[in-house]
Design goal:
Helix content is 59%, strand content 0%. The protein is built from 7 helices and no strands. The chain has helices at 8-12, 19-45, 58-67, 73-76, 82-97, 102-111, 113-122. α3 crosses α5 (82-97).
Length: 138
Amino acid sequence: MTTSFPPLSLLLQQEGPGAVETVSLLIWIVVAVVLVAAYWRIFTKAGQPGWGVLIPIYNAYLILKIAGRPGWWLLLMLIPLVNVIVWAIVCIDVAKAFGKDAVFGLLLLFLLSPIGVLILGFGSAAYQGPARAGAAAT
């Protein structure tokens, strides 16, 4: 009597996600919801619509308005390598608009953005307007 074994590909397939994958997914969902809530608070503190955080590209435009930068800078964010420099400048400007210094903007909004966003969103920082003199957000 011979026994036949199932093909190796059937043995390697998993039935569904394991416990580790499920917990990881739940953690990422919670982190995403908390960050969206923090950005929502930042937008409303700055007098912008909070729901704008949910709309791609429009949320970047609103951040430019909060920073006091012109809307056409959105096009600069589409250019590779230039976008990194532009985003660093915008992060510094957003930090200054909330009364923080350039180091906060560069370290906590640019490099460690989730931490900086949580501090600005849920902290006591109040929006003071664009830091640039004569900044016209178009």
